[in-house]
Amino acid sequence: MKYKIIIFDADDTLFDFKKSEKEALKNTMDEFHIEYDENYHLRIYKDINTALWKDFECGIIPQEKINLEKFKHLSDNLNDEFDANKFATSYIKHLSDASFLYKESLELVESLYKDYTLLIVTNGLKDVQNKRIKKIYHSKIL
Predict the structure, then answer these.
(1) What is the pTM of this model?
(2) Residue in 31, 13, 2, 17 with CA at minimum distance from that of residue 132
(3) Residue 69 half-sphere exposure, CB side, CA atoms within 13 Å?
(4) What value does the mean pLDDT take over residues 71-100?
């Protein structure tokens, strides 16, 4: 049986989401004049984010509330009062701009696109993923 379609997950398959996430958090904290310590802040952020995505998978929280909730929790955990709504908006902007393909992704896609229909699926936020994918597409990399 010959396959006609290959489906890829976007994050941590084609895109280096961990790198995007790190850059977005750093840039957002810089924007809010919070002295960023990657080892400290990223660990707290990831713990909060992981817990909220597990809550989403269990049906406890809707996806559209994750971003705001994680920054409310981050503000509480850091004992740093910042506007979670503004922080969340800034983070989404920075995350949308942080589009990093793994080197191997480009090679793989280039080797497959002539013979197969290629699709990307994601459970990420629509606005973020659309911008990240379009950025790669428009740069003529894919």
Answers:
(1) 0.82
(2) 17
(3) 16
(4) 93
How many domains, the chain?
Answer: 2
> How far apart, in whole angstroms, are the C-alpha atoms of residue 37 and residue 26?
9
**Residue 34 is part of a domain; what is its CATH number?**
1.10.150.240
37 shares its domain with 92: yes
* Distance separating alpha carbons of residues 80 and 96, to the nearest angstrom: 25
Given pLDDT bands bounded at 50, 70 and 90, which one contains residue 76? Answer: very high
Phi-psi region of 118 (alpha: psi -120 to 50; beta: other; left: phi over 0): beta
Residue 4 is which amino acid?
K
CB proximity list for 106: less than 8 A, separation 6 or greater: 141, 142
- Helical residues (DSSP H) of 32-102, grouped into ranges: 43-57, 63-78, 84-97
What gap in Å lies between CA 53 and CA 63, rounded to an integer?
A: 8
- And the tokens for 115? 């013979």
Confidence of residue 110 (pLDDT cuts 50, 70, 90): confident
Give 19's contacts (C-beta < 8 A, 6+ positions apart): 98, 100
